[in-house]
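Format notes (please read before filing issues)

Several people have asked whether sequences and structure tokens are stored in separate files. They are not. Every record keeps both together, in the order shown below: the sequence lines, then the token lines. Line labels are part of the format and must not be stripped during preprocessing.
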Amino acid sequence: MSPAPTAEAPPDNSISTATLNPTGQIFVPVAPGGEAGGATAASIAAAPTDTATLASSPTPAPPTATPEPAFPAYTGPPLDRDKIGLQIYLHRQDVRDLLRHFEALDIGWVKVQVSWKLHEPRPGEYDAQLFEELDRLVAGATGQNVKVLLSVSKAPEWSRPVTEMDGPPADYGHFEAFMRLLATRYAGQVAAYELWNEPNLQREWNGSPLSAADFVALMRRGAAGVRAADPAALLISGAPAVTGINDGVSAIDDRVYLGAMLAAGVAEVVDGVGVHPYGWANPSDSRVADPTQVTGSHNNHPSFFFLDTLEDYRAMLVSAGADALPLWPTEFGWGSFEGLYTPEGAPAAPPAGAEFMAETSEYEQAVYILRAYELAHERAWVGPMFLWNLNFTAALGPEFQEVGYSLLRFDGSRRPAYRGLEFRGE
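Then the structure lines:
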């Protein structure tokens, strides 16, 4: 995830029951339980309410999940399952439940973050539980014809010159060895590896000055490890964060950083270029150059706009002669805290730094996500696109901004974006 500069107090930005996006595409709301082509056998139903009573003493009904609100029906061209990806939280989750979600949403890809420092806490020693969880997920997904992308970053403390925050190892050979281990273990099962995450941020590259050239050197070693064990696996460059910050210390602007990656030869290393085209609170079709902006903050820099980021990156690849490489949006999404509640039952609010999420309703979140997939499908140079995220509400509380992006609420009920994806094209 990218850091969020402090936003202004956002205005109310509610929408009507039928939303017209900037291109004229109409998303028609579908009532809860209404027909959108009919639910499939894989649909994940909300918990039923027990209305039975005893003659002698009434028994209160058990609590139910949050009622499902209306959701937008996708009416655009068919979306290719093989380009629909989703990032999940895996630790201590029931893989069978995750697989049911994959089936309900009919996704072709799943992304899992592999924290190297947790998987190899000491040199040559590996966390058995974490690898067993990963084994089950990889086996289950591949058995369900869902391709797996493993995103690997965060060097162990024993390999780094400093232990604060996260960053690369002092010896890039350690990264090569760990990637070789992963590719050996999952040869023929894991379809792709993303080499690192948001390396233009100090918090992800601490211990060394921010440097795209050094990052490309690290990826060369990681790529060598994968290709030695599984030459068929695809390699995707770690995506820079979109921040609007370019101070050279806390962050380097993502466009500047990508240009330096291209100059350092990243096109020779990978099969696809990672990109994180977050939209903040801006609609999918909007651009920084629009004469009128509909949001109250994060609207004055191209890094805050989904479509600007995609098309700017593509233009840079074409200019560098690397247009054969597809863009892989390995994270994207819109955050909303509507429908999320604290453990005490009070409506949750976006945490400090994520106030912009208050400008996006759950319904708008769904509209923007569906439209983003449609826009990406219109561009042949965009590869699989991974929505952030399915279920970080299973691990984090309302004080974390990550939960605003989740498709599932804290009680496990499905948000409108989930249901819009579930019934797309039906």
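For reference, the curators noted about this record: The domain at 67-422 is CATH 3.20.20.80 (TIM Barrel). The chain has one domain: 67-422.
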